[in-house]
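As a representative case, the lines below give one protein's residues and fold tokens.
***
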Amino acid sequence: MTRSNKKKKKRGRLSRAFLTGLATLLPTVLTILILTIAYNFLNDKIADPLNNLIHKSLSSQLAKDQLWQGVLGMPDWQLDEVVDASGLPERAGDIPFSEYVEGIAPHWLGFLLALVLVFSVGILFRGYLGRQVLKGLEALIQQIPLIKVIYPYAKQVTEFFFEEKNKIEYETAVAVEYPRMGIWSLGFVTSSGFKTVSEVAGEEVVAIFIPSSPTPITGYTILVPKNTVIPLDLSVDEVLRFTISAGVILPPNQVPDAAGIQRQIPADDESGQEERDEADPRP
């Protein structure tokens, strides 16, 4: 084996090792990333404001007068930020009142309340009355300039991935030849398509949303003839796992029965091919 062949073989092994490591780490890294984003959203956008509201409410003059002094009977020297500066003998446990408030309302309390709030909103707006209230709020939101342009589409995309039941029939997973014939992509039927396109095509078309890897929240929306799509017995989760993992995680019912028919490339295949090429006398 020539030196150039050895170098090519080594590069091939390194490439395969890198791809194997990437395929192994990618699902874990993406899971951590999604959880981190969710945690940061709850912590920064909900928990921190709740903590600040609790601390300000407990530290307000009204709370000091009505609660701390009126109900609990705390003396004035425990309700200020001055520590042992009154000239009187040192008092045990005299700390700034703000620290006292932080001690009884720690940061994790706000995060816990954020979780409870999210669950409460979900439970509230799942009922009939909650849905009517939500419709009223959305009607008001859609009267605000700029926001009314963005909100409907943001809501539609969110419903696509999180709502169990909605007007979009996203549970219909399909395979379609895209971006060209012979290449198959997985997607979801989102609507019956455009009337004008159906009339020009002379047949019914459907709209397909094709999520992209590794971030399925983005992708492509295409219109294709209905008779060219292949319905798949797959759930939304199975399609999204397949997409996020870049095809590494196959749905259980889609694993080939005869895995042995898939051509396995041995580690020395490249070098063997090179040796066969060298033995071939043809130019």
Q: What stands out?
A: The radius of gyration is 31 Å. Confidence is low (pLDDT under 50) at residues 165-169, 259-283.
